[in-house]
Amino acid sequence: MTDCNDFIVINNNIKDWIKLNVGGRIIHTTMTTLSKEPESMLNAMFKKGSTWNHSRDENGCILVDADPRYFLVLLNYLRHGELILEPNLNYYGVLALAKYFQIKSITDIIEQEENNNNGWITVLEDSFLDNRLDVTKWVINKDCTGSNFDVVDGRFKLMNRVYLVSKEQYNPEDGEIKITGTWYRESIEDFFQIATRSCGLSQGAPYYEVKSGLEFNYCRGLASIVGRGGMIPTGMVKIKKMGEFYFPAATPIHFEIYDDGNTVSFTLSESVTKTSITIETTCTSSSLLNYIAIHNREKTGNNHVSYVTNLKIQKWSKSTMRRNKYRKITKKLSSP
């Protein structure tokens, strides 16, 4: 029987390193990482002094019979204490492997997230596939001279600071709201702006910003959450993924907004380069009017337009608040 301490040394000065062959993929990690959760099977396999009978490949790497894509999700969680579920991975594949290796903290997080998903009800959804404006869902505001819109190719086209405003109101104090969709811009000068707790009207010239509301804004590489009118963000803005977020024109950008009347967050992600930014803050200001207002503040002129599609507004239906707010979830691990 081979002791797992008879590992493959990658660096003679760092005796903790080990090579694994996971489903045919060579992965470098440490025995400390693999034994991070004391009650897991991985800890039993790789903790100091373990007598687990490891099988090895022709190069001496320890064989692990698992899909490397899902195994790396577990491994990164053990390394950094953050569970990151990429959109190209099967949600249940991660859960199944976490159960197999008995990493209970991961299964708890995923099962709680599944409960979160079941707590959302969709109150408005529009992909504009019939290339017309559904007046039962939306109201158009054309305060800016020359502003206009079109619905084409399954997208709502915003021209010259036009507003697309929800016909119904969605007060986050009656249940957290979640807004998702896809945004395209034709010029890097185009702004992206969505406001919750809004009157749906503009301030007028010169910029036609929203008159009141909590605005989720992207402009020239920077994402921000801005208070308009009497709306005042009260907390420090936390950037969950550091750095500016740039992307070319005509690239589809997925957005995700949460507002529970207190904590608010704004995420933009780009699937081609797999980059994203998330910011979070707090805002306790209440509003008498709670429309959702979507607009852009691009340069006026027909050559500057933005598009939105796949719009969905959801409401949290359970009496208890969500515990896990985001797909990227931080959970501290104690030392073994």
TrEMBL record:
Residues 16-118 form the BTB domain. One of its GO terms (cellular component) is Cul3-RING ubiquitin ligase complex. It comes from Tieghemostelium lacteum (Slime mold). Gene3D superfamilies: Potassium Channel Kv1.1, Chain A (3.30.710.10). It holds the Pfam family BTB_2. InterPro entries: BTB/POZ_dom (IPR000210), SKP1/BTB/POZ_sf (IPR011333), T1-type_BTB (IPR003131). GO terms for molecular function: cullin family protein binding. This is BTB domain-containing protein. One of its GO terms (biological process) is proteasome-mediated ubiquitin-dependent protein catabolic process. Signal peptide: none annotated. SMART domains: BTB (SM00225).
